[in-house]
Amino acid sequence: MHRAPALNFLLVTVFLDMLGLGIIVPIIPALMTTVTDDPATAVYWSGVLGSTYGVLQFAVSPLLGRLADRYGRRPVLLASLTLLGVDWLAHAAGPGPWTLLIFHALAGACAGTNTVVNAYVADVTPPAERASAYGRIGAAFGLGFVAGPILGGLLGGIDVRLPFLAAAALSFAGVAYGWFVLPESRPGDRVTSLSLRTSNPVGAIAVVLRRPVLGRLAYARMASDIARMTHQSVWTFFLAYQFLFSTTMVGVVMAVSALAGAVFQARAVGPIVRVLGDKRAAVIGTLISAAAFAGTAVASTPAQLYTLQAVGILGSIAGAASQSWLSGVVGPDEQGTVQGALTGIGAVAETVVPVTAGAVFAWSLSYATPGLIFLAAAAFTAASALLLSTTPAIREPA
């Protein structure tokens, strides 16, 4: 198989996926207000839509991973992108919140992009090159995050539904590109079972967590996901409260950080991980991230903040190294299954953590300690580093 066209497609897919999601971020409040005719109701329905997406992603991701092992990566990935495009069209044309809820739930149930992309990378890249490939995937993710909100804001100024049409067009463009360009990395074996034990989210996650090596890596991923979502959930509020940044300044800080992180992941992560190895790079990167979170908790000047953001970017080697390590622990016949379970774990964090972190942050403001939430993120990250450091770097049988 020619790896370059496949990896290029995955990079384009992740970029378009994040660009499409980023486009609609600035517009969701205006759209929901238009649909519901009431700001308070709009906030309620926005929360319901987000939670529904996360719950359905948790419920169905293990099944999608299993399907990717049984029938191949390509059909699952193209189906996921197609249904995401349909969801954006529904947002553009939907007459009411219940219509949006149905289609958004469908998109969450078919949100298999990350699951299949991670499995696909493991299929087409040798172990020594996986960290570099996963770093490039992370870079595409970051670039989409930078460009999406900017484009969404510009299009939303023309018409509130136009960004959703643009997001749908990008999704369908990805489908067309994949249909003609993407080769199948693993045709499937038709032997992989679709039992209830391995396809339901609780059973699939339990199977992964019970395995000695893979389970420890999954728990480490869970702790990192909690820290990551904690940071994402309160970051803009923290910048506004602690440093009195304007909305424009918040956007600039986030965009510059995301762009710098994308460049670092694309250019530096691969060489660093090749020198350190997956395990050492994962542990060191996670410890660096923990230090950045702890420092942010007590940062009091913009200069300190920018320095800590730079430190946090260095810590991004952990994500690619951990993903590379995970892909090497399991065999090619279960990459999709394991990645689906891990996506399910991440979906739990994305559903539960924002509410919890928001409540803790609001409580901390009563005591003028807005950085307290980042100490919690640092603690979870340190726990992840401990788990990684005590996990043997070996492959285990299924």
Automatic annotation (TrEMBL):
Signal peptide: none annotated. The chain crosses the membrane at residues 7-31, 43-64, 76-94, 100-121, 133-158, 164-182, 234-260, 281-300, 306-330, 342-365, 371-394. Belongs to the major facilitator superfamily. TCR/Tet family. The keyword Membrane applies. It comes from the Bacteria. This is DHA1 family tetracycline resistance protein-like MFS transporter. Residues 6-396 form the Major facilitator superfamily (MFS) profile domain. Its main location: membrane. One of its GO terms (cellular component) is plasma membrane. It holds the Pfam family MFS_1. It is a multi-pass membrane protein. It is found in: Cell membrane.
